[in-house]
Each structure stands twice: as C-alpha cells, then as structure tokens.
Design brief:
Helix content of chain A: 40-55%
Shape of chain A: flat
Radius of gyration of chain A: 19 Å
Number of helices of chain A: 6
Distance between the termini of chain A: 48 Å
Oligomer: homodimer
Number of domains of chain A: 2
Largest sheet of chain A: 3 strands, antiparallel
CATH class of the largest domain in chain A: Mainly Alpha
Number of strands of chain A: 6
Chain lengths: 168, 168
DNA sequence: GTGCGTGCAAAGACTTTGCACGTAC
DNA sequence: GTACGTGCAAAGTCTTTGCACGCAC
C-alpha cells in the first residue's frame, strides 16, 4: 500500500506539498514543549491522506487499517485538537451530530457545497467568498479570524435520481 | 411581564410580524395531521421571543420563566425539530458542542459574524451573500436549499479589552 | 372517544478526562 | 531520568426514545 509517510521518506513526489506539514506540526509542538510522538505522526499521516471533510471516527478506522499499532480514540481526539490549534485543520460544522474537520495546511480552508440528498460535497475555491468576508468585516470594524461558507443544495446527479421515473 | 402570546391576543402591535407565524405552524401541523398543543404553542412563543441565535437549553429555561406549566426537555427538542421541518427555524452550527437555531419565519436566515473573544455575534443582512451563493450553485448546476455564512473574528470592543493596557 | 402528545427517565452518540504505565527528549 | 503522552474505561454533554397517562381533534 502506498502510504504517505511523513516522518521517514523525503523524496516522494506524491507528498511534495504534504511534507512541510509535518515540519509545521513539529515546530508547533516544539514551541509548546510538546513531543512529536509516533501516535501524533500517524494521526497527521491519516489526516493528510484524507480528501475534503473527515470525522474523528473515520480517521480512527483509517488508522487501524494503515498501522498495526492502534491509536486510541482518546489520542485521536487529543491530536485533532492540537492540529486545530496548529492551524493545520479546521472544524467545519456541517452536521449537528458530529464534528467534521478538514485539512487546510496553509491554504484557505475550502468552502463547501453539500448535497442534501447524497451527502456528497464539493470544495469551493472561489475568491469572491473571502473578498465578501473581508468587505463585511471591514464595514463593521472587525478583525477576521476565519469564516465558514456552506451551500446546501441538491446536486444534478441527485436531482436526476430523485426525480420520479416517468412511468412507462 | 409583557408576553407575546401567539394563540390568544390578536390586536397587539408588537406581534404584527410574528402573528402569522403561528398560523404557519398550525397549517404545517394540520397538513401532517399533527396537533397544535399548548406545549407547541409555548415553544413557538419562546422561539419568537428570541433574538438571533438560541439553543435548546436556553429555550427551556425561558419556558420555565414564561409559563407556570413546565414544558419538558423532550418536548422542546421534539418541537424544535417540527419547527425546523416547517421552515420556521434553521440550524446554525456555530459551535461543535451544541446545536444553535435561529428563527427565520419567511425571511432569509441571518448570516452571522461571531466574536471569538466574547461570543457576541451580530446578524448580517447582506444580499451579496445570497447572490454569491446563487452564482456558485448555478455554475455547478445545483439547486439551492440554503446556505450558512459565518465570519469568525474579533469585535472592536473585544480588541480594545484584549489589548494590554499601556502601562502608565 | 381515539390516537397523537407529553413527561419522565433511561438510553444513545460523541467527546473528554483520570489514572497508571510508557516513551520522547 | 523526567515529565509529557498514551490507552483504557468511566464520566460528561447534548439529544433521542420507550412507555404510561393525558388531551386535542
């Protein structure tokens, strides 16, 4: 299995963007006198392998597949909090029942459009969103820490499936 | 105490906008062969008295103040779900720990700017947000069901308080 | 009069925490 | 060698659900 190991390999092309992320986390930990442990590396590894949104539970399952060494649920939650504080992932809050996260590693966090039928979601990379945010915050004299923009809708595919088949 | 009763008074000026909401809910219930009970009326009443965002717990506390008759937590949650299905309130999801709601009664749901220091939030009523949403959805061929736009920042007041006092 | 609605308490889901042992520094 | 980190399981929150009685229709 091709695994984007973040702490050993240094020449892989696949991880060209991801590699610095490991350094970012290590520096963050060092600054706070925290340790870069096997478990934290594995969680970061699993996070880097995700696409778009993910949940703690999914990450835990992925960790069990990826590694022999089982990282505990508690450690996953604890590490997710650290990654959040390090600015590597953000909360996304699209579902009241469960916290969703996403990797942001220096990029602007993706805004999201979610299909209410299928749960399928696509990342939006529209600069107009941040511009709008900046304009509004400026008008009110606020300084910006972040934003979340989620569009709820029905994707074309779901609309096709949902539409009752014309009988005959 | 001045209470915007939704099921008895009909001439109050204060509830000119709110009154129809009761009808909306009653019709919704009738359409589904559900009953318009005292408890549901009281929950709607309390929801109408809220400003901006609210949580189930706060609503429950308010209900205990407003009425002698205690509405149970279970009924509050059940009614909030109905109100949501009726399109009277929406989920807001600004806090991973608790579900937040807001009254929308026919209006566009307010977007929100939240101060990360104080928790204070202000409602945004900027039409550019919906326009942006529409443009993006159209580009992707999606039909829109709703959206959420939240700006996280530091309000001017909080910035002032946070700033260390110039010694002397 | 019927069947939906309610209150209570217990269950359920997700997340956090206390404690003893392990390990990165 | 030390103090932070981990795993486990128990606790904690918010929310939902089962059941017997009550009330809107």
């Amino acid at each position: 299995m091709h695994s984007a190991s973040n702490n050993t390999s240094q020449g892989s092309e696949a991880i060209e963007i991801l590699a610095p992320l490991c350094s970012v986390f290590r520096r963050f930990l060092k600054d706070r006198n925290l340790r870069y442990t096997q478990e934290r590396a594995e969680v970061l590894d699993a996070v880097m392998a995700t696409e778009g949104l993910f949940e703690a539970e999914g990450l835990l399952l992925q960790l069990r597949e990826r590694t022999n060494h089982n990282v505990s649920k508690a450690t996953v939650y604890r590490t997710l909090r650290l990654l959040q504080e390090a600015g590597i992932i953000t909360l996304t809050l699209i579902d009241p029942n469960q916290t969703h996260y996403q990797l942001v590693y220096g990029r602007t966090p993706a805004d999201t459009m979610i299909c209410m039928e299928t749960g399928h979601h696509i990342d939006l990379r529209d600069t107009a969103i941040a511009q709008l945010r900046d304009r509004i915050a400026k008008e009110h004299g606020w300084s910006i820490k972040g934003h979340r923009f989620v569009i709820y809708g029905i994707s074309p595919e779901a609309a096709d499936n949902t539409r009752p088949k014309p009988s005959a």
